[in-house]
Known about the structure:
GO terms for molecular function: oxidoreductase activity. By secondary structure, the chain is α/β, with parallel strands linked by helices. It has one domain (2-117): TIM Barrel (Alpha-Beta Barrel), CATH 3.20.20.100. It contains six helices and four strands, in the order E-E-H-E-H-H-E-H-H-H. The protein has helices spanning 22-30, 57-66, 70-80, 92-98, 108-115, 138-141, and strands at residues 2-5, 8-14, 33-38, 84-85. The longest helix has 11 residues, at 70-80.
Amino acid sequence: MHFTSPKEKIFSVEISPLWQQQKLREFCKSKNIVVTAYSPLGAKGTRRGTHEVLDNETLKEIANAHNKTVAQVCLRWALEQGLSFVVKSFNKERMRENLHIFDWGLSLDDYKKINEIKQRRLLPKLEMVSPNGPFKSLEELWDGEI
Length: 146
């Protein structure tokens, strides 16, 4: 956790259009905690990542309608949610694309479609589950709430 002032706290959690964590974000807002979206694009191509965000058909449809990439749609969504986010890329073209999220916005119809995406954790943290550890199953680790 990083403290920027005595009244404001910042921490990062897994958030994307596929795992929106609305309850957690509402709680953090009520406590003046700034949330940073971790893996907002799913970390495709990494050992721990997933392709499900960038390959999501609903997000592709929205991206095509705006002549944008799925990554740009996801980052614009996070920006409009008031989230900070960190995107990791070594590809210069993708880094340039990621900057082109400020001159357009998502429509109410886009939000309706995004909110209909089935929600599920993409990075379940299986390495924290062990028969000999404090968490014996994913159900013990994640309670389904905040």
